[in-house]
Design a protein that fits this description.
The protein is an alpha+beta fold. Helix 2 packs across helix 3.
């Protein structure tokens, strides 16, 4: 059920993930390659509803359009999904790290939450989604672990909409993260060939 995949394409770690006025859709953000401080300036973010009452999130516009296509295709199969989390500023990631540290301890937070500046959510291209089963959103890891057949069906649909499953080794059972890669940052065309590899 785990697919481990990443793309490296940027030439400089100093400006990692930023190529002028458009975001770089083939970006690697992790502990070794933190996001550029200018990256967010290139994002065309839209505000969307999440699965939580009265809460919204921001997401890169073309990524959201691809998500809606995925959501529609899954609905035709009787599967309902919703957005749990999407774009996160570095400041928001700092709050998440602090919350987890206060609630669960520093070691747990370090092993569970990306260090601010190193989260794929900073790209606007990563989405945490959750399924709705029997009228209830299943956002607890324990609940999602009980739905392997459902997630298998979701996983099969991802490449058809330009998404890949992006879980780090050892993070099985965490929220499902989708990442969109596009052929050309100046168009609204998804590179479904890259996502199927």
């Amino acid at each position: 059920m785990l697919l481990y995949f990443f793309v490296v394409c940027c030439e400089s770690t100093k400006n990692y993930g930023y190529k002028g006025e458009h975001p770089d859709y083939l970006v690697l953000v992790n502990k070794m390659h933190p996001i550029s401080v200018d990256y967010a300036k290139s994002l065309d973010l839209v505000t969307v509803d999440t699965v939580y009452d009265d809460e919204t999130a921001e997401i890169e516009k073309a990524t959201y359009e691809a998500y809606l296509s995925l959501q529609s295709a899954l609905e035709k199969q009787g599967i309902e999904i919703g957005i749990d989390s999407a774009y996160r500023s570095v400041e928001y990631q700092e709050r998440i790290m602090l919350d987890f540290t206060e609630k669960c301890g520093e070691e747990y937070a370090r092993n569970t939450v990306a260090v601010p500046g190193t989260s794929e959510h900073h790209t606007g291209l990563a989405i945490d989604i959750v399924p709705k089963v029997n009228g209830e959103w299943k956002w607890e890891n324990e609940d999602m672990m009980q739905l392997p057949e459902l997630f298998s069906r979701i996983h099969k649909e991802l490449p058809n909409h330009g998404f890949i499953l992006r879980l780090l080794k050892g993070s099985e059972g965490k929220l499902l993260i989708l990442t969109l890669y596009r052929v050309n940052s100046h168009t609204n065309i998804f590179d479904t060939k890259k996502s199927k590899k």
